[in-house]
Amino acid sequence: MSRRMLAALAAALTMLGLVVVPASASSPVAAAAQTLTWTSDENVTHYTSAPTTAVAGETTIVFENSAATGNDTGMLHTLTFDTSTPGYNHDAQVNITASPTDANNGRHELTVNLTPGKYRYFCALPGHSSMQGEFVVTEGGGGEDTTPPVVTAKVTGTQDADGNYVGSAAVELSATDDNSGVDKVEYQLDGGAWTAYTAPVVVSTPGAHMVHYRATDKAGNTSAEGMASFTVVEDGGGGDTTPPVVTAKVTGTQDPDGNYVGSASVELSATDEGSGVDKVEYQLDGGAWTAYTAPVVVSTPGAHMLHHRATDKAGNTSAEGMAHFTVVEEGGGEDTTPPVVAAVIEGTQNSEGAYVGSASVKLNATDEGSGVDKVEYALDGGAWTAYTAPVPVTALGEHTVKFRATDKAGNASAEGSSAFTIVEGSGDVEPPKTSMAVTGVQNSNWAYVDKATVTLTATDTGSGVDKVEYQLNGTAWAAYTAPLEVTAVGTHTVTYRASDKEGNVADARTGTFTVVKGGSGPGQDVCPDSDLRATVIIGGIDSQVKNVDIGNGCTINDVIAENAEYATHTKFVRHVKAVTRELVTNGVITSDQRDRIVTAAINSDVGTQTAKAV
Q1: Which GO terms describe its molecular function (predicted)?
Q2: What is the pLDDT of residues 62-87, one digit of tens each?
């Protein structure tokens, strides 16, 4: 696909909301204590480069997917931090989409605050699920000391010809720190608990062993974990010193993106040609090590990791292996995004914002994935209760309501909280009456040419109007003092309300209008050379769906772009599914029409010639 065609397609997708452009490299970003950089190219199995460690604190995240990093085709990638899988930190909200053809030429950055622990990152695009990894964040230092200690291990003892330690081995740890000084040294033997190191660790149990170790200085900086591995044999040597070989096999019904639908089953097998296999163990999603006796069935939607190991009868333990996979609900794609939940406190407010007489707490939750399963609230520190209807509160004084929501895939939102105060009622309880008028020159589609003027009015026959406020396109509430002149091209929404001098607030009302550039006819045309066929036709197959303008001058055929280059037929079908899903969301087509278009794409040969050529 040519760079010019990619740019045009990216522009059309942006109008549909399929491309999200985060804070760019050209936007002012406050300097952070450290910078972590990810890069990607045309590969869909791994990032070109990614960090493995970091220090807690303010951090600049840089994600570059550009020609400079090896992407010459305009392929989209995302850098998304996991916010739901157990065992990882979920406090950094990172979800960057980058392409060499976007406004920043594929380089984006934002600032987050990292805390000690482990983070998981991945590419959220369908078919790119193998692009994932982890990095560990250690405690930040105090003062100017941000350098962790240096810690080393030395294994001593009598060794046989094969390098095994006869009878026992001693592990001696030493650590140095040139700044604040070493505070503590710790070790972990064969996956056990972390233990303070005070003297050489003597190991006499026959078999393979691993000692992990780390050190922390007085400024709180912790070194990366090191590891010493060795094998102890009984006096006289010989015997079995080779660990077992263990493998994992994941089975189940998979969707086109490689996700397992409903559930996945992990089968472990181990062999040992020496003393024989003694035990096989697994660890699911960072949980406890568990004896393996039968295939492990996982049905919880989301990304999963299963570590595994085996030990033979001579005590030799294999290195840990890992199988990673994703489970999605039947009939749906992968849903790892929690619901969005918000609280609205309603009632008559006085000039200080307190509610007069009573208040009603309304909770609203939405989930674009598997759907909302339940909404809960806790009032004034009480028990969590299922939310089914607005909660009336009449007790005078200060109140706090906490709220949360869970979707059908099991993703739970973070807890939200709203505080409010109820005072005794008095006098005027009727809110002002409000209205909005939009004026300007309109074209044949009722869009305003070049500019629109918004006038808000409010009247109150009781205590009188105290203030009028508005929100333009979802921004913060602002005081209305004079008519608003809106010149930005596009669709705009004005939300407005008024309060009287007794604190009664009118319900917020909303008005919507569109501004277009003069001389552009009914609106901007993103696709001046549109595909104007009467119906949506893909590779010669007629879906019988009307080929309408999607609202920006592009038709459905334009954004499907059947004549573009696709690596495989499957990638083309995924593209059509993504485009039509947005068209349904934006009310351009119905779900039934989307099914007909996707069926036409599946039955077409678009992408098959490219695949054969490769």
Answers
A1: metal ion binding
A2: 999 998 898 888 888 999 999 988 88
